[in-house]
Amino acid sequence: MTEQQNLDVVRRGYEAFGSGDIPGLLRLLHHDVSWVTPGPADLPTAGIRNGHEAVREFFASLMSIGDILRFEPRDFIARGDKVIVIGDDTTRVKATGNSVEFRWVHIFELRDGKVASFDERGDVSALVAELRAAQTQV
Q: HSE on the CB side for 86, CA within 13 Å?
């Protein structure tokens, strides 16, 4: 696929996510997709996942811990089968009601017209601190 086609697949994924269409997003993923997100073991969204069901569970975890108030992919860079997206978001942590800001980089690798791997890079320490603070209040 061309770089433009790869960019289009990734953009469609963000559009699906933005509209809450997780089944539509999953259709853009290769059947054996690798999905990597940062954080310590006690962060429910952190870790390495493989396959559609594991990615579906990731999104369920993501939605259970916070409400995404703002999600903005800003820069899209394509190089061969890789697409890199730089962006930021604001999430309200359900357990505390406090909002945290994120700056992130998403690295996609495409194969056969689908996302074969997703690797998120970012500092999740503010989210982890909020979740840990909520646990100590219990």
A: 3
Sheet holding 29-37, edge to edge: 47-50, 29-37, 114-122, 99-111, 82-93, 66-79
* Residue 26 token pair: 């999953």
- CATH architecture, range 3-136: Roll (3.10)
Find the Cα–Cα–Cα–Cα dihedral 104, 98, 47, 31, rounded to 10°: -70
- Retrieve residue 54's tokens: 């594991």
pTM (two decimals): 0.94
pLDDT tens digit sequence for 68-103? 999 999 999 999 999 999 999 999 999 999 999 999
Residue 102 sits at the vertex; the CA angle it makes with 100 and 106, to the nearest 5 degrees, is 150
Tokens 């996609």 belong to: 108
Hey, what long-range contacts does 70-77 have (CB within 8 A, 24 or more apart)? 71/17, 71/18, 73/14, 73/106, 76/7, 76/10, 76/11
Both tokens of 27, joined, read: 């259709």
C-beta separation of 95 from 81 below 8 A? no
Report which of 35, 23, 1, 13 is spatially closest to residue 110, judged by C-alpha positions: 1
Annotated domain spans of the chain:
3-136
